[in-house]
């Protein structure tokens, strides 16, 4: 079936699929960034509400969002590690140090996705080039065979 499609139709279809993918990713990222489940998230972390100075005061981040240890998750010694398995350490202006739950760093996920897309694109370009070279090689061989047959007849 692909043999019957013209090249510009295939490029147009591929461009449409690419735009649709980008549109879906933008909508998904905005929905996630706006906190589509913010209402659910505030109810989810009841255990960590023992120190909420970071909600009212300015704070500095002592440790960025990082995974909890396997011991913290299994033993449930830190309530913040139960839901997301990630924690962040903050120091409030009052001097209180708070460990709070956080989602996995979106930047890392985004970076991994971009790497995946780049690798998939490079593999696609490489596959196209190999297919194109193979097609040219087979066409050239076919033309040479036809030319030899025509030369034999004459």
UniProtKB/TrEMBL annotation:
Family listed: Belongs to the JTB family.
Keywords: Cell cycle, Cell division, Cytoplasm, Cytoskeleton, Membrane, Mitochondrion, Mitosis, Signal, Transmembrane, Transmembrane helix
UniProt superkingdom: Eukaryota
InterPro entries, A to Z: JTB
Membrane topology of the entry: Single-pass type I membrane protein
The protein, known as: Protein JTB
GO cellular component terms, A-Z: centrosome; membrane; midbody; mitochondrion; spindle
Signal peptide positions (record): 1-32
Locations listed in the record: Cytoplasm, Cytoskeleton, Microtubule organizing center, Centrosome; Cytoplasm, Cytoskeleton, Spindle; Membrane; Mitochondrion
Organismal lineage: Eukaryota, Metazoa, Ecdysozoa, Arthropoda, Hexapoda
Coarse class of the protein's main subcellular location: cytoplasm
Pfam families named in the record: JTB (PF05439)
Gene Ontology biological process terms, A to Z: mitotic cytokinesis
Bilayer-spanning residue ranges: 113-133
